[in-house]
Each structure stands twice: as structure tokens, then as C-alpha cells.
Amino acid sequence: MSNDGLKRIHSLYTCFSVKEKKIADYILANPKRIIHQTINELADEIGVADATVFRFCKRLGFKGYQAFKISLASEIMSPIQQIHEDIKEGDSELSIAKKIFLSNKRSLENTALIMDERSFKQAVDLLLNSQRIIFFGIGGSSIVAMDAYHKFIRTGISCLLGGDIHFQLMEASQMSSLDTAFFFSHSGMNKHCLEIFHVAQKSGAKTLAITSFPNSILAKEADMALFSRSEETKYRSEALSSRIVQLSLVDALLVNVLVKRGEEGLLAMEHVREAIEDTRI
To answer: How far from chain centre, in Å, is Cα 175?
Structure first.
């Protein structure tokens, strides 16, 4: 277990319940004090049950409160600077490149921490049982939608990619209960994305979303939602750094779908390879 308890709390904070946020706030404000407190003392100080504190530590990926305290102690005594948050104007090109790589790595690790097995399985099953999948995204999210379309067309499942906003609205209006509308939005609050989303809902389509905010309208109203985690830096917005995570989630969904489709999926991939083979020199 790496010594990154405080970073994990920051990363997962938006997903916490009211009680979990109460614990998180106390720990973030008093990290040195926590090291010398028993689980009973901490629970009494915050006003929650011992079991609530224990489950909080488990949610962070630790075996229990003691394991969390050991990690926290090491983190405080030997603070690890978040290199990807420390890009300076005087940095060399290679140094900046390495910091960006580490930032992406951290975002992927944070997302892996919050992935829920049941939700991910349901998302795979939703796509697997779709007669047709249409991918939707606005602005930067349209790039992720295009990548998802480019990949899922290899599964043998009928796929479409939304064009501009008007085309996306029209495509959403023609969906049915046999189709899945797959939405990508970092904020989950984009006006045009939500407009298209509600049209797809009205058409009876099942809805799947990937977003960074569990409390967003898109996350709350979609039939199924998966979440990406990323951090904003001085020279790079949170939305930009979340893209690599969303692309990775798409990869994970794709491979799962192909595995479950078995020979049918392999045959579809082979047809794609044969079709584009002559395009190479």
C-alpha cells in the first residue's frame, strides 16, 4: 500500500456521503493529530460510529484504521511532492513531459480506486445487449465519443456517431428501447449535451454516461454512469486531464464486450481488419 492516504481522500471526496465527508474534513484538517488517536477517540471527536470510520478506511483501500494511520504517518513524515502539480516556466521540455505522464498515471490510479465492480458489469451488459449504440459528446468530449465509436464498430454491434448538435438531436430522436445512448461529458452539466440526453430519454433509449461529477444532472439521470477522476494543474485544466481516463474506460468496456461476444466478436474484428487492409502501403 503506497503512502497516499491524503491524496486518496482528495481524489474520492466528491463521491463521499455526508458522514464520509465529515470524517474526510476532520482528517484533512488534523492529519498529525489522527496519528495519535485511536479509532474510538476519532469517532467520538467527529460524532460518528467506530464502524463508520472503519468503513471509510476500507473505502480508501486500506485494511483498516491502523493501516490507514501507518500510511498517514509515513506520508506526513516524508511528504511526497506531487510532481505533476509543480510545472514551472523554467522546466525543461523533458521534465514537463515526465510530469504530464505522471499526472496521467495518477488520474488513472485515482479512477481505478473509485471503480465499482457492480456498476461496471452493468455497463458492460448494457452495451452487450444493445441492438445499436450511438455515441454523443460536445466539444472536447466529442473526441472521446469518436474514439469510442472507432473502437466499438469492431465489436459487430451496430454503432453510430453523433455529428454536430443538430445531427445529434435528430439521431437521439430516432432511438428506441433497444438502443443505448452513450454520453461523454466531463462536467455532466453541458447544456447541449443534456438537451440531447433528454431527447434520447424521451425516445425510450437506455442511457450510459461517463463523467467526472457524480452529482451532475447527467450522472443522476442516466440509467448507468461511470466516473473518471483527474486533477487540475496550472497549465492544464481538469477536463483535459480527464480525457485520458475516459479513453481508458472506453478501452476497458470494449475489451469486456469483445470477450463476452466470443467468436462473434473475433469474427467482427477480422472483418474490420480485412476491410482496411488494402489502405496500408
So the answer is: 26
The CA distance from 200 to 177, in Å, is 10
> Quick check: do 1-80 and 114-279 share a fold?
no
Contact 12, 59 (CB under 8 A): yes
pTM of the model as a whole: 0.72
CB atoms within 10 A of CB 77: 10
Tell me what percent of the residues of the chain surpass a pLDDT of 90.
57
Domain ranges of the chain: 1-80, 114-279
CATH 3.50.50.60 is right for the domain spanning 1-80: no
pLDDT single digits (tens) 171-208 = 999 999 999 999 999 989 999 999 999 999 999 999 99
Q: Which fold has domain 114-279?
A: Rossmann fold (3.40.50)
